[in-house]
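Below is how a single chain appears once it has passed through the pipeline. First comes the sequence as given, then the structure the pipeline wrote out for it. We keep one example in the README because the format questions we get most often are answered faster by looking than by reading.
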Amino acid sequence: AIALAEAGSKVVLCGRNPAGLRDTATAIRERTGSEPHLVALDLADPASVEAAGRQLADSEGIDILINNGAMWLEGRETAYSAEEVLGVVNAAVSGTFLLTQALLPALRRSSCPDIVTIGSISGLPNAALQSVSVPFYAAKHAQAALADGFRQMLAGSPIRSIAVHPPYLDDMLPGDAEWLANAQRAKGSRGSNRDVVEA
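Resulting structure:
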């Protein structure tokens, strides 16, 4: 969001953590002088998705919808609660689909609309389970299917649907020393969220 704002985008931040949204909005304001629009949104809650969709659907147009909502659930030997499993699956799959569906009219009002789904290496065919839980693994496979399903459904329209499937990432903020040095790292180094932004 910060990198997009620095590139001149008018940013709408959606998320279930109000403090996190405010922190990101403050960073954008300090770096760019622009004021992001904040929308409370819990993708695992259909009522929250519906409310956010209504709030955003009437916008002048959405050029880029970035679907990055997923709840991390690590692999473990103890059983998962129904709440944990449904939270992961509903956020990544049901909520992502319903929000995208609600925003299609606003995307159609753009001259160059894109839907970008941030998947995961876990969502690729034959990916190793590694440290993720089976519900997270399945949800990421479903997100890959959503991106491809939207691609097929919207073929022939101006709306493009693409997916980016990052591996485990180093997390850094635009402008930090790590972010600036990231472009000079050796081939084969770990990926970073800067790589996702650039992709």
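The chain is about 45% helix and 15% strand.

See the next section for the split statistics.
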